[in-house]
Structures are given as structure tokens and as C-alpha cells.
UniProtKB/TrEMBL annotation:
A motif (Q motif) lies at residues 28-56. Its EC number is 3.6.4.13. Residues 59-236 form the Helicase ATP-binding domain. Its main location: nucleus. Residues 580-596 have a biased composition (Basic residues). Keywords: ATP-binding, Helicase, Hydrolase, Nucleotide-binding, Nucleus, Ribosome biogenesis, RNA-binding. This is RNA helicase. Residues 247-482 form the Helicase C-terminal domain. It is found in: Nucleus. Belongs to the DEAD box helicase family. DDX56/DBP9 subfamily. ATP-binding RNA helicase involved in the biogenesis of 60S ribosomal subunits and is required for the normal formation of 25S and 5.8S rRNAs. Residues 1-27, 362-382, 574-617 are annotated as: Disordered. Residues 28-56 form the DEAD-box RNA helicase Q domain.
Length: 617
């Protein structure tokens, strides 16, 4: 638990008046912002030392009653930037009128984000929990339960536009006395096709509601939203120096399709990258191909994709954030299937007259939990029916990610920025490594080929150009292929075991297992919300492919004499995110946790010894 930064009287330490600095207001403290003392105390409990740029800019405007449209990304502290003013207003009003009614509505594009926002509301209202009730409408509960939650008149309602509109329409929720509206990830809300729901919500809320829009980009569509919800808003086009991806060292490796598997094996097994890693792949099948491939080498990993039940997804992210898992293989279909190849240059302030945005209405899977879907029926459909409320490379708050590995390059430069933004958050360092398949090597190894790779070089050129505009460089990561070649035989051996049939079976089996886990999680969560973790693991072996025990350790003779650093040239790898020798939480003696053991030594891996294996039986 984090230590509270309070004085001896258990009160937040008052801060001196803001000190002017070279860059303006960086010495401003939370207390200086004029927030309710209980909120300042909660902020201190969260160990937020100083407000971030979006917080110190947006909060005073919001407290002043202004509508705000802020360009703010996940990782910038945007959630607290709108939650704190909302809480402040509710607390101020309750001093005069203690009745409860829904005065604030927070709209988000995904259930995962709704969950995160709800948590932030809980954390920041820790010292005034009696006075502020919040409800999220995104949980899969019956209409009756939903109604009863809403009948308590929660002060703050967090929802996706579709769900909230359903509740407004059915009169389960009254927004007659709404005073504040937040649209978080506004650009994503639109790309998820919530336009009609938003129009409906806009029509049903009272005039003069104070609006705050948070958006990673200020596109034309966001400009349209602005005109629908805001009156003369203050537009904050903030460019935070330590925002998303700022401290990311970026590397690219040009390689053949099967070499991706070779390199990822070497990188992970020999720990060329240290710390937690998100591996992005092109689609759901690819997740399982890579997971099964890793399994051959005794490397554990979790999968995150839109097909999995939402409870499982949330749980995976939570556990990953607690360092229980080290590798997540994510398919970000919303990005990878590519509906967002817009120009990189955004339109600030957007004086736009288009009607609220496109979006395919037909296919949206609102809150219907994908829990009861049949995989086979799904597969028959040409276009995968994906959960439109799922998004990995944006929105979700992954903590302490040392490396984002673009196993399959995304299809746009924008998508790349979102992905690499999952690492190097809050001033930390991190690295992004991308595999890029040159045109001449595309389709040269059919079993490992993926369609999106056809344009890898074009996309990479756009990525490099866009990063250069921000003064960042994408450097080549040169592997000494001769040294890496030594591992090719093992890679081929493992790849052969990962057949199409095995992948299909793994996908079906994992979904089935996750549905069961999801039900368990749900039940347990209902009874014991704070102990949802520790319950279930998501990185178990699928065991559908033929496994070969000998692959699980790396024999000494394969290792370069000069040490593993000689596999690569240049200043790369070894991100000192996690200190050498320091085990991640949850690493218990005798338990495999996905990360390789001491390379080349059976001693280092208790599960690989005869004794240990006997014991586990
Ligand atoms: P967000 O951009 O709202 O998703 O926040 C990203 C992360 O930054 C969350 O884990 C927050 O807990 C953290 N955070 C928010 N505000 C601050 C702050 N002022 N100082 C330090 N961390 C913060």
C-alpha cells in the first residue's frame, strides 16, 4: 500500500504559494487548485505529488464553470483532471443540500475504461465516501439490478453512451438535474459508432450542463462533438513533455515472417528485454499461435483479445499491473483491422459542420457480454464480430510496461503511437521494438504469414516520419543473425508443432475456460469485490500442441561465448525497469511465472528437475 503524504496531524501538507518556474506553473500543488480539502487528502493518499499538466490546466477552468475540451491521452492524468472537479462540485452542493441525485455523467467508450474510471472515483472520494455515490452501468447485470442501482440516485454515473441511453430511455435513470457531463476518450467514443446514442443523450440532458471532453486527438469529429455538447469551451491542446511514449526508445528489426518467431524466442528466452512486455499481434488466431509457440519453450503468457469475456480481460490487466504476469499477447483488432488510417495531423479546434460521425451501426455489440457466443459460429462470419467496446492499445491503463513489442506492425502510424504509449508512462523509461517484414520477404513463409505485413514497409516509413516530427528516432536493432541462427532449428521444431488445428483448438478451449473463469470471477466479485485477484490465473498452458520437453531449456552450446549481449549490436535491450535479481511479485519458489529461468541451467528451474516434477504430480 502506498504511503500517505500527510503531516503529523494526518492532514495534507499545505503547500506554499506556487513558485513561478521557467515553464510556467509546474510548482502548482493540488492544494493551490482550490479543491475541497478531502480531495487534496485523497490525492496525497494516491501519492500524486503535483498535478500533471492537464490537471493543473483543466481543473481551475472546470472549477470556474467553463466547458473544457482537452487533448489528453491515457497516462496524462486526465481521469483525475475531470473527476476532481466533479467531486468538488458535488461536495460543495451537498454542504447546502444533502439530497442525492445524478448530477454528473461520465461517458467512456469501453467497459474496461468504465471500470478504471470508477476506481479513480473511489480512490479520490476515499475521504468523502459518505457524501458521494458513484455507479457504473457497464457491468453485466439484469435490468432489475440496474434499476435498483439507479434508484439510489448515484451522484455520478459512469457508462458507455449506449448503456446510458438505454437507461435514460427506459426511465431507469433521470438526467433532469444533471449539471456535469464528461466525455472521456471522445475520439474513440465516436470511432466505436456511438454517434446515435450520443445524439440521444445530448437531446435528453438539460441545457447549460457543464461539459468536459477528453480526447487523445482533436480530430474533425471531436470538433463536431464539441459543438454538440459545449458552449464556447476552452480548448486545451496540451503537449506534455513527459506524456505518452516520451521516454520510449524505439527500435525496429527488418526480418522475414518466420524470423519474427525466431527473434521473439531469443529475445524472451534469453531475456534480452527485461521487465513486463505487451506483445501486439495482428489478430486473435495469431495470439494463440504465439502463445502455443511460447508454450513449447516453457514461456508463460496471457492473452488479451476482444473475444474473451470482459471479466477475464479486466482481471488479466489487473493482475498484469500487479506484476503477476510478465507477458501479455494482445490483438488489437480495432486498430489492426484498420478503420483509422486518418492523416496524422489532427485538426485542432475543429470548426466542422459534418453531422456526427460515421460508424457502422449494424454490428455494434453494446454491453452484451460476449460470454455466450459460440466460437464456431463466430468463425463462420467473414468479418470477425468483435467487441466494439474493447481496446488494448488505448485507454487501458497498463502499469510498468518495460517493452511494447510490435510482433506484427500496426497498420497506421497513429496506431503505433497508441501502442508504444503503453510503455514509458509517467516519466519512466521503456522501449518499443517492432518487427517489419520487407516487401520481398512477404508471403515467403506461408504458415507464419499475416496479411497486414504486406504494407509493413509503407507503414514503417509513415511511423518514422511521424516520430521524426516529434524529434524521436526509430533506430534499427541489429541482431547478429549468425548467432541467432543457432536457434533456428529449435524455432522450426516448435513452429511445426503449432498447427492450424492446434490453434483452432486452443482458441476454442481458451474461450471455454475463460467463460467459466469469467462466471467464477463474476460470482466471486459480487461477493467479495476487493479480493477478485488471486482467484484465477490466465497464463496457464493450453497444451493442445504436441510439446517437446527438450525445448524448454536453452542448452549451453547455443549460447554465444561472448554472452547474450553479443547477439545484438548497438545500445539496445536491457531496459533497467526491474532491478536485476529483483523478483516480480507473485514469484514463488517452485512456480513458473512465464519468464524464463536462468538460461542454460536446469538448476535454476525447479520445475525442470526430476524431483520437482515428481512433487507436482
Ligand atoms: P490517466 O491518464 O488518468 O489514465 O492516469 C494515468 C496514471 O497516472 C494513473 O495510474 C494515475 O494513477 C496516475 N496519475 C494521475 N495523476 C497523477 C499525478 N498528479 N501524479 C502522479 N500520478 C498520477
Amino acid at each position: 500500500m502506498s504511503k500517505r503524504k500527510l503531516d503529523e496531524k494526518d492532514e495534507p501538507t499545505p503547500t506554499a504559494a506556487p513558485q513561478p518556474t521557467s515553464n510556467g506553473a509546474s510548482e502548482v500543488s493540488f492544494a493551490d487548485l482550490g479543491l475541497d480539502a478531502r480531495l487534496v487528502q485523497a490525492v496525497a493518499k494516491q501519492n500524486y505529488e503535483k498535478p500533471t499538466l492537464v490537471q493543473r490546466t483543466a481543473i481551475p477552468l472546470a472549477l470556474d464553470g467553463k466547458d473544457v475540451l482537452a487533448r489528453a491521452k491515457t497516462g496524462s492524468g486526465k481521469t483525475a483532471a475531470y473527476v476532481l472537479p466533479l467531486l468538488h462540485f458535488i461536495l460543495s452542493r451537498k454542504k447546502m443540500d444533502p439530497t442525492s441525485f445524478t448530477s454528473a455523467l461520465i461517458l467512456v467508450p469501453t467497459r474496461e475504461l468504465a471500470d478504471q474510471v470508477f476506481k479513480v472515483v473511489e480512490q479520490l472520494s476515499a475521504f468523502c465516501a459518505k457524501d458521494v455515490q458513484a455507479a457504473k452501468l457497464t457491468d453485466k447485470v439484469s435490468d432489475a439490478v440496474q434499476r435498483s442501482i439507479l434508484s439510489n440516485n448515484p451522484d455520478i454515473v459512469i457508462s458507455t453512451p449506449a448503456r446510458v441511453w438505454k437507461c435514460i430511455e427506459s426511465s431507469a435513470l433521470s438526467v433532469d438535474r444533471l449539471t456535469h457531463l464528461v466525455l472521456d476518450e471522445a475520439d474513440l467514443v465516436l470511432s466505436y459508432g456511438y454517434d446515435e446514442d450520443l445524439q440521444n443523450v445530448a437531446k435528453s440532458i438539460p441545457k447549460g450542463v457543464q461539459a468536459m471532453l477528453m480526447s487523445a486527438t482533436l480530430t474533425a469529429e471531436v470538433g463536431t462533438l464539441k459543438s454538440v455538447f459545449c458552449r464556447n469551451p476552452k480548448v486545451l491542446d496540451l503537449q506534455e513533455r513527459d506524456a505518452e511514449g516520451e521516454g520510449v526508445r524505439q527500435f525496429v528489426v527488418k526480418c522475414g515472417e518466420d524470423e519474427k518467431f525466431l527473434l521473439v524466442y531469443v529475445i524472451i528466452k534469453l531475456q534480452l528485454i527485461k521487465g513486463k512486455c505487451i506483445i501486439f499481434v495482428a489478430d486473435v488466431d495469431r495470439c494463440y499461435r504465439l502463445k502455443l509457440f511460447f508454450e513449447q519453450f516453457g514461456i508463460r503468457s496471457c492473452i488479451l483479445n476482444s473475444e474473451l469475456p470482459v471479466n477475464s480481460r479486466i482481471h488479466v490487466v489487473e493482475e498484469f499491473n500487479k506484476n503477476v504476469y510478465d507477458i501479455i499477447i494482445a490483438s488489437d483488432e480495432n486498430e489492426v483491422l484498420g478503420d483509422e488510417d486518418q492523416p496524422a495531423d489532427d485538426v485542432p479546434n475543429g470548426n466542422v459542420s459534418e453531422a456526427i460521425v460515421q460508424g457502422d451501426n449494424g454490428e455494434r455489440m453494446t454491453e452484451k457480454d460476449d460470454a455466450h457466443q459460440d466460437v464456431r459460429a463466430k468463425k463462420k462470419r467473414k468479418t470477425v464480430k468483435r467487441d466494439r467496446e474493447y481496446g488494448v492499445s488505448r485507454g487501458i491503463d497498463f502499469r510498468n510496461v518495460a517493452c511494447v513489442l510490435n510482433f506484427d506492425l500496426p497498420t497506421s502510424a497513429k496506431s503505433y503511437t497508441h501502442r508504444i504509449g503503453r510503455t514509458a508512462r509517467a516519466g519512466q523509461t521503456g522501449m518499443a521494438l517492432s518487427f517489419c517484414v520487407p516487401k520481398e520477404l512477404y508471403r515467403k513463409h506461408t504458415p507464419t504469414s499475416v496479411e497486414t505485413a504486406e504494407n509493413d514497409e509503407k507503414v514503417l516509413a509513415r511511423i518514422i516520419k511521424q516520430q521524426a516530427k516529434q524529434g524521436k528516432e526509430v533506430k534499427p536493432w541489429n541482431f547478429d543473425m549468425k548467432q541467432v541462427e543457432a536457434f533456428r532449428y529449435r524455432m522450426n521444431d516448435a513452429l511445426r508443432a503449432v498447427t492450424k488445428v492446434a490453434i483452432r483448438e486452443a482458441r476454442t478451449r481458451e474461450l471455454r475456460q475463460e467463460l467459466l473463469k469469467s462466471e467464477k470471477l463474476k460470482r466471486h466479485f459480487e461477493e467479495n469485490p476487493s479480493e477478485m485477484h488471486n482467484l484465477i490465473r490466465h497464463d496457464g498452458e493450453l497444451r493442445v500442441a504436441r510439446t517437446q520437453a527438450h525445448l524448454k531449456h536453452v542448452p549451453e552450446y547455443l549460447l554465444p561465448k561472448e554472452g547474450k549481449k553479443s547477439l545484438t549490436s548497438g545500445d539496445i535491450g536491457f531496459v533497467p525497469f526491474r532491478k536485476e535479481g529483483k523478483k516480480t511479485r507473485g514469484h514463488k519458489k517452485g512456480k513458473s511465472r512465464g519468464r524464463p529461468f536462468k538460461v542454460g541451467g536446469r538448476k535454476g528451474d525447479p520445475l525442470r528437475t526430476f524431483k520437482a516434477r515428481r512433487k507436482t504430480k
